[in-house]
Each structure stands twice: as C-alpha cells, then as structure tokens.
C-alpha cells in the first residue's frame, strides 16, 4: 500500500484527525483507505440537463479504476453543469459561477488533487479557471465528440444546423420537416462533432498541457476514451505524488502554444475569451497585441468542419493535437511541460508523422494567415475577432453602410421587413450583446440574412456585434467588439448609413465618422442598468470586458490586477 506523502502538503490528511473521517466512513469509505491513500476528487459536470456531458458518468467509472490502480482514493464530486443551448440567456453568464463552485470545492474539500470531467463549451474553461485558482494538481478530460447524425441517408454534423435554421426562418422547411430534422440532430451523448467551442477547448487543454496528449478527439463512446479515462485517473495520482500543480504548466509559453494551436485548427472564436480568462487566473495577461502577433504568424493547417471538409475523426486518425504540434514545431515552445511531466519536445519525438489532407504542412497550409484575425480600430479600440478560416476571402475586406439593430428583439422584429434599409453591401450591426448588455455575450451575433436579400440570392454579408457566435457556425461575422455598446463603446454610436470599413488582412475595423459628430452622439448615451439582486447583480457589478476574459475582476489573480 502506498504511504501518504509529505504530511502537510496533503489537505486530505485532515480527514485522519477530525470528525470528517467518521462522516466519510459513513459514506462507505474504509478507515484504512482514508488514512493511507491520496484522495483524488473526480469533479464531474455530468447532468441530465446537459446531453453533451451525459457520458461522463461512464467515464468517471474508468477514471475511478485508474485512480484505484495507482493507489489513490477516488471521491466523485458533482459540479455545476452548463449547456450551450439549454441554459439562458447565455452560457457565458454562468461560466464564472461554475468556476467559483469548482475553485471553492477544490480548496475547501479534503482532496489532494482533482480530475476535471467536462464537455460542453463553457464547462471546460470554467473547471480549468477554478482549478488554477485553487492550485492543487489537476488534470482535465472531456466527454469527447458525439457520433455523426444521419438525416435522409446522409451523415451530418452540428454545423448543418445553422444552414437549416436559416432555411427554416425563410419558410423553406415546413413544420414537419423541421421536427423530423431536429429529432435526428443529436444522436447521443458527447460534444458537438465539429471544431466548435467544445472541441476547440478540449484541444486547447491538451495544447496547454492540462490534458493527456492525444486524447481530445476519441469518440464520446469508445474504447479509446475509456482507456484515456483510466490513464487520466492514474496520472492524477502521479501528479499528486510529484506535486505537479497547474502553475508549473500554465505559463506564457504554454498559453502561446495553446493559442497557436487554435489558429492552426481554425478553431472557435470563443477560445480568445477563455484563454485570456485562464491566463488571468495564472497571474498572466496575454493582451490583444500578443494575440494579433500569434494569429498573424500561425497558418491554418487543419481542414475540419466548419473550417474545412473533414471530420474530427479524420483529424484524430491523423494524430490529433500531437501531430499538429509536430507540424507547428518551429513556432512553438517545445520545452513546455504537460501533466505527465514530459516536455512537448519529448512527446512529438515519439509522434509519427502522418500524411493526410486533413492536416497540412507549414509549407502547404490551407491558408498562410491564421484562422482567427484579431481586429483593432476606431470601432473596436479594445479589439474584435473575425474567424477568417470560415469566411470566403472576398469578405475579408469590405466597406459599406451600417444597418443597426438594438439587440435581438429589435433584430427579430425588423430583419425580414421589406422596407429595411439594407443592401448586399450593407454592414449589419447587432449591439447590446456584450458581457453586460447581453448579458453574457449570447451566441446570436450571426444575424440571419434579411429576407429580401436572401430571396435575391445573397447568402453571406458582413455583420458586426459585441456578442459571440457559436464555434460551429461560419459566416462573415465580426465578434466580441470591445468595449461593448452597453459600456459606451464606439459601437453604441453607430447610426444607419454610417460607413464602416473592415480589413481582416491588416486587422482593422474602422467607423468612418467625424470625431466631432461622434462626441455629439456620445453625450446622449445611456449605460446599461444594473439588476437589483442575486447573481445577476454580482455579475453586472464585476464582469470585465472581452479583452480581459469576461472574468470577474475579483477572481483574476492579484498579480494581473495590480498592473
Ligand atoms: Fe454542447 Fe455543442 S452544444 S458541445
Ligand atoms: Mg458552441
């Protein structure tokens, strides 16, 4: 039987000497195990209200076996679970609440280290943010992508939903067809089966070093994922013994590796927000200039939907994140260490190079410019994001007059109005969707094409918002405009007909209106009202803007706050 290590280090030691042990014995744990084994908390975001995380109960069983095999004592602890489409008005509103739950329960429970089980988009950063702040050894494992759905004999991914929704809104699919389509859309547990936010975040965890290399894209219900779960459990015990804490893994270098990975994947725009929030918990700040530099110098290499024709399975078969690291080697910090204690240099040394159209090389990229463009300019002094990889090149530069909507209700009321002042060259603005205005930056920034333009064949146009877009969607949409309109950012000043210029090659977003005129408009602005109580109040008082990760100011590490 392994002996307990290093007395004081183990918070679970207090179980031995206190009445807590009596209660744990009451829960079925043996005195001997409680005294001798390191306690590993399995922080599980399984929930029946979260279909994407529904297989985590099975995965937890395998994690448990791995922990036992390595001499640890597994204790499963439920966490808050957030679903992207089910929780409203937006999942990001609840990410910080979940991060607080995870942080406090890691800190205040007698566990020596944790396995974090996550899946649906925000559950990944929420758990990691909490675990970094808590400071105990932590390893992440996601639910894995769900199977592809079959509709009318064809395999389809969640990406198809957005096109179908648009057709439905335009009356091209009737009630029966829509119901039938929806009934087939989600064939079982697991995360969205394209390079959406959940997949991007899972790959980001691997690249950052907080998950076992090569494990992100094993299907949700597969032998490989079960084995990965066992290994993750075993590794958690090793990490406790080695005192391998998140601060040794999350560094500016590993954050750069993670972001370059997202760019090469053509991954979700949401990653920009979450990565800055993760950095803030580790006492680090990335900042828009670093994001710009990294994105401009990282080519897009992975052709997975929605930024290419291939599936996650194809990418996994081609070697997944370690194979991508091998391709990107000259751009990455290979001395960064991961949960196993190994450097990336060692990991890619044993990774085979595969030849596959889903994973291109540096000298034959899908696009030499990164999948994500970080924009700045008079309309977005604090930055904005544009997913170039999912937008045809003709939309990367554009100049046109604004058509402005004040939030979702206004947009839904007027978007199909035949008298809407809009043409194919127009730039649609949807504001009031930011961290405070949304609240929580709802993923509704992809405004549908106005009906009168749709009927004349228009299928894409430039749209700009302070909100977010689903990582599974495509389209010429500028997102996360900072500062948001509810905080009086320039986006709040735009009027119908103002000329807006987008240049996603040079990274610019400009509002071409005279400064004096803007000053005049600014005088009449009103900021968003604060809710009067509860979590909504806490959120409104303390949430930061997109350029600082939409975290609460008091949760960001003091080292960053004091800068
Ligand atoms: Fe949960 Fe996509 S909605 S992962
Ligand atoms: Mg999503």
Automatic annotation (TrEMBL):
Source organism, top-level taxon: Bacteria
Alphabetized InterPro entries for the sequence: Dihydro-acid_dehy_C, DiOHA_6PGluconate_deHydtase_CS, ILV_EDD_C, ILV_EDD_N, IlvD/EDD_N, Sugar_Degrad_Dehydratases
Domain Dihydroxy-acid/6-phosphogluconate dehydratase C-terminal: 358-549
Molecular-function GO terms, alphabetical: 2 iron, 2 sulfur cluster binding; hydro-lyase activity; metal ion binding
Coiled-coil blocks: none
GO biological process, one term: branched-chain amino acid biosynthetic process
Keyword Glycoprotein recorded: no
Alphabetically ordered keywords of this record: 2Fe-2S, Amino-acid biosynthesis, Branched-chain amino acid biosynthesis, Iron, Iron-sulfur, Lyase, Metal-binding
Residues in Dihydroxy-acid/6-phosphogluconate dehydratase N-terminal domain copies: 37-345
Protein family: Belongs to the IlvD/Edd family.
The protein's name in its UniProt record: Dihydroxy-acid dehydratase
Organism: Siminovitchia acidinfaciens
Species classification: Bacteria, Bacillati, Bacillota, Bacilli, Bacillales
């Amino acid at each position: 039987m392994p002996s307990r290590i290093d007395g004081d280090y183990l918070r679970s030691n207090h179980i031995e000497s206190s009445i807590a042990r009596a209660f744990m014995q009451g829960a079925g744990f043996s005195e001997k195990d409680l005294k001798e084994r390191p306690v590993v908390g399995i922080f599980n975001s399984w929930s029946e209200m979260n279909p994407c995380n529904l297989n985590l109960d099975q995965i937890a069983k395998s994690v448990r076996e791995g922990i036992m095999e390595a001499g640890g004592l597994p204790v499963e602890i439920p966490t808050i679970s957030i679903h992207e489409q089910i929780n409203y008005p937006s999942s990001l509103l609840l990410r910080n609440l979940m991060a607080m739950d995870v942080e406090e329960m890691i800190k205040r429970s007698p566990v020596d280290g944790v396995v974090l089980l996550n899946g649906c988009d925000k559950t990944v950063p929420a758990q990691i943010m909490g675990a970094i702040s808590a400071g105990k050894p932590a390893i992440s494992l996601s639910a894995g992508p769900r199977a592809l759905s079959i509709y009318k004999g064809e395999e389809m991914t969640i990406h198809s939903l957005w096109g179908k929704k648009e057709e439905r809104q335009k009356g091209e699919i009737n009630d029966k067809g829509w119901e039938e389509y929806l009934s087939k859309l989600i064939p079982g547990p697991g995360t969205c089966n394209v390079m959406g936010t959940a997949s991007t975040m899972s790959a980001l965890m691997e690249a950052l070093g907080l998950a076992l290399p090569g494990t992100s894209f094993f299907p949700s219900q597969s032998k490989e994922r079960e084995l990965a779960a066992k290994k993750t459990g075993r590794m958690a015990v090793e990490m406790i013994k080695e005192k391998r804490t998140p601060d040794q893994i999350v560094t500016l270098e590993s954050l750069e590796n993670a972001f370059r990975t997202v760019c090469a994947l053509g991954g979700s725009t949401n990653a920009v927000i979450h990565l800055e929030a993760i950095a803030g918990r580790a006492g680090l700040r990335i900042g828009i200039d670093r994001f710009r530099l990294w994105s401009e110098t990282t080519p897009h290499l992975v052709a997975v939907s929605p930024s290419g024709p291939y599936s996650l399975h194809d990418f996994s078969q081609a070697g997944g994140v370690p194979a991508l690291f091998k391709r990107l080697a000259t751009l990455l910090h290979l001395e960064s260490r991961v949960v196993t204690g190994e450097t990336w240099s060692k990991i890619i040394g044993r990774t085979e190079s595969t030849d596959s159209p889903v994973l291109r090389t540096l000298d034959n990229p899908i696009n030499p410019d990164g999948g994500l463009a970080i924009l700045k300019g008079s309309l977005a002094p604090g930055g904005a994001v544009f997913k170039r990889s999912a937008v045809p090149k003709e939309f990367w530069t554009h100049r046109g007059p604004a058509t402005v909507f004040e939030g979702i209700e206004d947009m839904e009321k007027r978007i199909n109005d035949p008298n809407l002042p809009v043409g194919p060259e127009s730039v649609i603005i949807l504001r009031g969707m930011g961290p405070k205005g949304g609240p929580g930056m709802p993923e509704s920034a992809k405004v549908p094409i106005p009906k009168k333009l749709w009927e004349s064949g228009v299928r894409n146009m430039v749209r700009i918002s302070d909100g977010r877009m689903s990582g599974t969607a495509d389209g010429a949409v500028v997102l996360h405009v900072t500062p948001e309109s509810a905080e009086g950012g320039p986006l709040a000043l735009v009027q119908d007909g103002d000329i807006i210029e987008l240049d996603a090659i040079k990274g610019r977003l400009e509002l071409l209106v005279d400064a004096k005129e803007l000053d005049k408009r600014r005088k009449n602005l009103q900021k968003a009202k604060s809710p009067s109580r509860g979590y909504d109040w806490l959120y409104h008082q303390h949430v930061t803007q997109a350029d600082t990760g939409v975290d609460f100011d008091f949760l960001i590490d003091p080292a960053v706050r004091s800068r």
